Each structure stands twice: as structure tokens, then as C-alpha cells.
Amino acid sequence: MALLARLVGWYNSFVDDTWADIQFAMERDPAATNWIEVLLAYPGIHALMLHRASGALLRLSVPVLPRFLSHLGRNMTGIEIHPGAQIASPCLIDHGMGVVIGETARLGQRCHLHQGVTLGGTSTLRKQRHPMFGADVLVGAGASIIGAVSIGTGARIGAGAVVVSNVPPHSTVVGVPGHVVAYYDPGDDTVLRLPDPEHDRIESLELSVSELRMELRRLREQVDDAGDQPGETAAG
Q1: For position 38, which CATH number holds?
Q2: pLDDT higher than 90, residue 88
Q3: Could you give the CA distance from residue 235 to residue 233 in angstroms, rounded to a whole number?
């Protein structure tokens, strides 16, 4: 009876989490027209469903089968999620091809990952070695977040960024290696741009080159004007 009660409880939780994922996908993806389409045709939903099943089996210490389900999900969807990863509901893996989520990764509620995202580890020890997300984190296509770094609530990781250090809440990170370029107020979405020394230096160099071009043009005009003037003749 105890086992049956646990199975019923897990099934109810599984259905609730899947429904929350579907609703979140419809909220975040304007291409989603109805819940049946999302359930049948969104690989991110299928990957999360298989992950919740494999995670439950792993917690029951069932051998082999959790990793087999993870492997099956990878072949079906192109999304690889280790059964040990903890992903809160709702979550959206958008398109998803090439997404890799490691064993000790932790994702808070309402996280949104695009295709090609890697949540990888840098250690071979059996400890926390993958990223830990707060809630409402958005990760752009092709971004890599490596190591046991903390990504704060509401953070936004730009496409193609490589993040290897902690990210403060409500900040925007871009570049390789990733660096914070802005903070925003979640209350009114006001964005505060931070100083970007690299960008400022490039702008300064562009301005200097422009000034040098103008000076070179002025000198050339002076030389051309001097060449056009008639030469002086000696008095007879």
C-alpha cells in the first residue's frame, strides 16, 4: 500500500509538472497555438517528461534504467539531461537540439533555455560541479555555463556567452568569457547599462582613427592647393 501511495503521488506530481511546463511554453512561445500541439510536437516537453521519470527511478536506486531513459530521451529529442539533475517546474527548453544538462545541475522555476545550451562541469569529483540557477533565468542559444557557478534569479545569459563565474540576480551577461553589461529592475524593466571598458576603448580607437583620417585629408588638400599655385618669376 505504501508503494502504491508513492506511485500515485508521483504520478499526480508528474501530471501537474507537465501541465505547468505546457502552460509555460504557451506563455513564452508565441508560435504555440494550443496545448495539444505543445504536448505532441515540442521536444523540450518530451525531454522533461522522460527526465522526471528517470529522476524518480534514480532516487529509488534503480540501476541502469534511469540512464537508459536519459539516453532514449537524447536520441528522441537531441536533448541530454542527466537523471541526477534537478529541474523545477515549470521549465521551457525551447527547440532544444544540442542542450546538455549535467548531473549536479540545479534549475529554479520558470527557467528558459534555448537550443545548444550547455550546463557543464569542470571537476571529476563526485560533488557539486554543475551550474545552479535561481528562478526566471533566461539562457540564449549556444551559451555555455561551466562549473559550480551560481546564476542569480532573473539573470539573462546572451547567446554564445561562456560563463565561468557567478552571475548576480537581474543582470545581463554577454561575451567570452561572459561579463555583466547591464542590470534591470524586474519591477519596471528599467535597464541600467554598466561601464564596458572594452567597448569604450574600441569607440575611442574608432574616434581617433576618424580624426586622423580628417587630418590626413586636410594635409592632402593643402598639398594639392600648393601644387596648383603658379610659380614666382624673377624680376627682369
Answers
A1: 2.160.10.10
A2: yes
A3: 7
| Domain of residue 67, residue span | 2-193
pLDDT in tens, 4-19: 777 777 888 999 999 9
Cα–Cα dist 150/168, whole Å: 8
How many other CB atoms are there within 10 angstroms of residue 10's CB atom?
A: 15
Q: Which of 64, 45, 207, 67 is nearest to 113 (CA)?
A: 45
DSSP 8-state symbol, 83: T
Give residue for cell 561551466: 146
How many whole angstroms separate alpha carbon 227 and alpha carbon 103?
A: 76
pLDDT in tens, 22-46: 999 999 999 988 999 999 999 999 9
In a domain? residue 204 = no
Is residue 67 situated within a structural domain?
A: yes
Residue 169 falls within a domain, yes or no? yes
Gap between the Cα atoms of 102 and 110, Å rounded: 19
Q: Provide the domain count of the chain.
A: 1
Examine residue 229 and state whether it is found in any structural domain, yes or no: no
Determine the Cα–Cα distance for residues 217 and 213; give it in Å rounded to an integer. Answer: 6
* Helices 2-28 and 43-59, packing angle to 10 deg: 150
